[in-house]
Every structure is written in C-alpha cells, then in structure tokens.
Design brief:
The chain is globular. The strands form 2 sheets. A 3-stranded antiparallel beta sheet has the order 1-2-3, with no helix packed on it. Strands 4-5 form a two-stranded parallel ribbon. A hairpin with a 5-residue loop joins strand 1 and strand 2. Helix 1 packs parallel to helix 2. It has 89 residues and is of the alpha+beta class. The chain has 2 domains: 29 residues, no CATH class; 53 residues.
C-alpha cells in the first residue's frame, strides 16, 4: 500500500494521499485520547484486546520497522486480525 497519514486541511476537510493522488476522506476518523505516544507493545496489545472482538482494521503507522513487524505478528497470532504496515519508514 502506498498512502500517507490523513491530515486535516485548514478548511477542515480531511485528505489523504494514495499512490500520489490527493483524495477527500469520507470516513469517520476517531482520535484516541489518553494514550502515551510511547506506549509499549504489551500496553498496545492489552488495549487492542478490548476492541479486537469488533474486528477493527489495524494500520501500524508509527515506530521502527522491526518493532512494527513484531507487533503485526502478535496482533495476527493473538487476535486473528489483518494488520497492515503501510510503507517501510
């Protein structure tokens, strides 16, 4: 997948870049407050365990590639969810 992180424009319209093309996002975007940006893998897995039954789409966009790949494996093994690593950073 080749896309960028969704960003709000000054007009308030959400846009994303997918394969180099700017598109308007017509999805509900939720902000998860109350989390450290430096949560550990065990904290993330514990949190995901609470929402995993709803089968969310998981996209791992932050962190070092080896750590993201490790977390991806744990998510797939533990919760049987499809998780994505957008682009190697």
């Amino acid at each position: 997948m080749a896309y960028s992180v969704i960003a709000a424009c000054p007009t308030g319209v959400l846009r994303a870049v997918i394969h180099g093309e700017k598109v308007v996002v017509r999805a509900k975007v939720h902000t998860l407050n109350g989390f450290s940006r430096h949560a550990g893998q065990s904290d993330l897995l514990k949190w995901l365990g609470a929402v995993a039954p709803s089968k969310p789409r998981v996209i791992l966009t932050h962190g070092e590639n080896d750590s993201r790949k490790s977390l991806l494996g744990h998510i797939q093994e533990r919760f049987h969810l499809k998780a994505h690593l957008p682009v190697e950073l």
